[in-house]
Design a protein that fits this description.
By secondary structure, this protein is α+β, with helices and mostly antiparallel strands. It is built from twelve helices and eleven strands. Strands 1, 2, 3, 4, 5, 6, 7, 8, 9, 10 and 11 form an eleven-stranded mixed beta sheet that branches. A hairpin with a 7-residue loop joins strand 2 and strand 3. The longest helix is centred in the C-terminal third of the chain and has 15 residues.
Length: 346
């Protein structure tokens, strides 16, 4: 076989958690929540007590305020940055970057006391849908090459007091996720998001395999002309380029949901439940509100990218959902990298 394009490999992973995605390259429906029901049109199953995030006695936003209030003056100098940090000259604010390691190479264990680390873990759990969501976002508790929760980073941008804007950004290997109390207007997840896992994306050892499995089921249901529209050659790219929104009137690649049959649209609903299942209901609901405001699910397109090494068992190396103000760019091979950007375009 011809070696895969080196551009599809990730040097930042080859060098482990100390190598961050450059800031210039930065860039919710949960399976067991009412948000899932909003798409599927069915009642959401009750969440068992055992499925609730451990010790999440209050919303994540309340715990962030508690964390901020307990920081010493010296700690604030380390872990609290201005809301517009890094935005000089029209650059992307640091809070909106996507990272593959702790920002400023500052892991939790070096910046926070043990009780604060425990509070941060409760915050992280609180932005997950349930224990399954936590398992996926934490990659089975390993945080991939970060190895442990206290080896990822968490910085606060802005000031979580009163009505001031703020964003708590967790960053580690194959992980950038936020909680901002809706401080970033019209943006799902507080801004562009990044997740991944080291195993092959077609392997059941990958914690996000279930997402690709649902997409495979949808693809298998497509017919001749639909597949021809959906399957593309090459790659949609990664990092910044992969999540840029297209200009008004510019076509989106792939097959539109509006061109699918009712049965196929039910499979689309399953895909949406799958990709949003790790996240709390508030975030999933916000995603679906933004999708609706931007033209609804019918405006979303599915695209599948193949290259020379594709096989029947591994039919594409990327799959992608894209529409107005919506990008979910999932790299399957050689391992999972996913870039997400969802914003109200209205």
């Amino acid at each position: 076989m011809t070696p895969r394009d080196p551009a599809l490999y990730c040097p930042e992973c080859a060098f482990g958690p100390d190598a961050a995605l450059a800031r210039r390259d930065f860039i919710r429906l949960v399976g067991t929540s009412a948000a899932a029901a909003a798409v599927a049109g069915t009642a959401a199953p009750a969440v068992r007590a055992a499925d609730k995030p451990a010790k999440a006695a209050k919303p994540a936003e309340g715990m962030i305020r508690e964390l901020f209030e307990g920081l010493s003056t010296d700690q604030k100098k380390q872990v609290v940055l201005p809301w517009d940090h890094g935005a000089k000259g029209g650059a992307i604010p640091t809070r909106l970057g996507m990272y593959n390691a702790p920002i400023a190479k500052l892991p939790l264990k070096d910046a926070y006391k043990k009780p604060q680390q425990e509070l941060l873990e409760r915050i992280f759990r609180a932005i997950c849908s349930d224990d399954d969501g936590y398992k996926r976002m934490s990659r089975g508790g390993t945080f991939d090459d970060s190895k442990s929760f206290d080896s990822i980073g968490a910085l606060i941008f802005g000031e979580p007091t009163g009505d001031k804007p703020y964003s708590l950004v967790f960053a580690g290997h194959h992980l950038t996720v936020r909680c901002d109390g809706n401080s970033e207007p019209g943006a799902a997840f507080g801004g562009p998001m990044y997740y991944g896992h080291t195993p092959n994306g077609y392997s059941d050892r990958n914690v996000f395999y279930y997402q690709t499995k649902e997409v495979v089921t949808l693809f298998d249901a497509l017919e001749g002309k639909q597949r021809k529209a959906a399957v593309l050659k090459g790659t949609p790219g990664e990092q910044a380029k992969s999540v840029e929104f297209r200009k008004a009137g510019e076509p989106h690649p792939g097959l539109a949901v509006s061109e699918m049959t009712p049965d196929q649209r039910e499979l689309v609903e399953r895909v949406m439940r799958a990709v949003l299942s790790p996240y709390r209901k508030e975030d999933a609901d916000e995603v679906m509100d933004i999708v609706k405001a931007n033209g609804g699910m019918n405006a979303i397109h599915f695209a599948f990218y193949e290259d020379k090494e594709m096989t029947d068992r591994q039919p594409w190396h990327f799959w992608r959902l894209e529409g107005p103000g919506f990008v979910w760019n999932f790299r399957v091979l050689p391992h999972v990298h996913t870039y997400v950007h969802i914003r109200n375009k209205a």
